[in-house]
């Protein structure tokens, strides 16, 4: 065994950390090598000196201070945690009841606000009512009277005064600004126009002879009309129910 | 050798007060502490505070931080006590917390300050006279030797220092040290071997010693 390896083993052997199978080889080396034997003695003394440090350390007063401070901190945290809840619980019952009712009222109000459909206001769409609304607006905002009236009266867009923003561009900033304001002002009325009343559908005429005269199967021709002038429906069916 | 043996008898570890209490009583104390009984928790601290402080004292770069470190160990112990199985042994867990706390303190604190006898004796530190019957000259020499060893211990890499403090100063087995440090026995054995060689070498710096 070489001395360098022996010294590593001595460092372990000094506290009994050496594996049993390595101990005999180390003993043989120490018996034959005085330098390593001296090394082993120094190592033991070094360990004794190290262990003499083990007894040194902070005084009891330091330990006591650390303990007391930690316990005070834990106690403080516990008290704070408990006091916040106990203070709430200790309040009078009417406070709890009021808080509960307030929460319920807020929840109910929120629920109702979500349930109510938007834009459900009933608006009179007759021409007289529209004219009256426009006049009322003109009175409330005199500065806007001219463009609003112009936009309302024409109801047809001219190239000079476009009622829809971005519909036509002019180079004059003043001319560009006014129609924008007017169209903004008109916006609610346009929104109302977008929600027409539901069309009514009715049977206009029934022609049962048109097909039977030609010798074919009996055919009934129904003319069904809607109140909406853009909709006209025809439904043709035979006596077997086929269409 | 007789003198050395006398030193060891004189400075041998004061038995922790945990040896005065049975295992069942400790389990009961742990149960009560988990339920929020601070008196029981204080008793647990009292059982282990000496070994916590002693370990922290050796692991910290700044020994004056030992009070704050011990305090931090107690707080961490209390906060994590609910998850602890009281049938297990508390000491290894406490050592592990202590090592972690000291590592955190050392990282925050920067480099080691210069060590001196004054530093060692400051802040409540006590160094036992290794040979009370020795002449004043011999006592000074022994103190100087202690200082050298203490300095060499503080200069060790963090892991080597933790391993040798737990193994040689706290007297734990290699397996226990490996468990506490989250390492293997082989690694711990290698670390303490290197550390012991370095300490012996440091002692050789004294006049009249062979390095």
Walkthrough of the structure:
- The complex is a heterodimer of chains A (243) and B (211).
- With 243 residues, chain A is mainly alpha-helical.
- Among the domains of chain A are: 3-54; 127-193, no CATH class; 201-238, no CATH class.
- Chain A is built from eight helices and three strands; from the N terminus they run ααααααααβββ.
- A three-stranded antiparallel beta sheet of chain A has the order 1-2-3, with no helix packed on it.
- In chain A, β2 (219-226) and β3 form a beta hairpin.
- Chain A starts with a helix and ends in a 5-residue tail after the last strand.
- Residues 1-15 and 121-127 of chain B have low confidence and may be disordered.
- Chain B starts with a helix and ends in an 8-residue tail after the last helix.
- Helix content of chain B is 68%, strand content 0%.
- Chain B is mostly helical.
- Chain B folds into two domains: 20-112, RNA polymerase sigma factor, region 2, helix turn helix motif (Rna Polymerase Sigma Factor, Chain: A, Orthogonal Bundle), CATH 1.10.1740; 114-211, Orthogonal Bundle (Arc Repressor Mutant, subunit A).
**Strand portion of chain B, in percent?**
under 5%
Number of domains of chain B: 2
Largest interface, C-beta closer than 8 angstroms, per-chain residues: A-B, 39 and 58 residues
Percent of residues in helices of chain B comes to: 55-70%
**Assembly level:** heterodimer
Total number of helices of chain B: 10
Number of strands of chain A: 3
Number of helices of chain A: 8
User: Unreliable runs of chain B, pLDDT <50, ≥5 residues?
Assistant: 1-15, 121-127
Q: Give the integer mean of the pLDDT values of chain B.
A: 78
In which range does the helix fraction of chain A lie? 55-70%
What gross morphology of chain B would you assign? globular
Q: Which structural class matches the secondary elements of chain B?
A: mainly alpha
Main sheet strand line-up of chain A: 1-2-3
The CATH architecture of the largest domain in chain B would be Orthogonal Bundle
Strand runs of chain B, count: 0
Shape of chain A: elongated
| H-E order of chain A | HHHHHHHHEEE
Distance between the termini of chain A: 111 Å
Topology of chain B as a string of helices (H) and strands (E): HHHHHHHHHH
Cα end-to-end separation of chain B: 21 Å
